[in-house]
Amino acid sequence: MKLLLALLTVLPLQAFAGADCKVYPKEEWASEATLKQTLSEEGYIIKKFKVDGNCYEIYGRNKQGKKVEIYFDTKTLAIVKAEIEK
Fold this sequence. Notes:
Layout: H1 2-15, H2 32-41, E1 45-52, E2 55-61, E3 67-73, E4 79-84
Antiparallel strand pairs: 1-2, 2-3, 3-4
């Protein structure tokens, strides 16, 4: 019973887990400034920018004004996971 309760308390955390980004040596990471500039040029407004494990993560709004939470590969800057307000 205790094991079941322990599993039930852990499972909801997995639903909110971040993205699974590939691991690269820090010297191979693209610069944060490059990503910020590119997103700004595409019309994004960045409210918060952070490193989350091996991902760059932003919170903000896209050019349509919708809230976004996006995780990027730190080397290629490709989107790994995105949550966009409907």
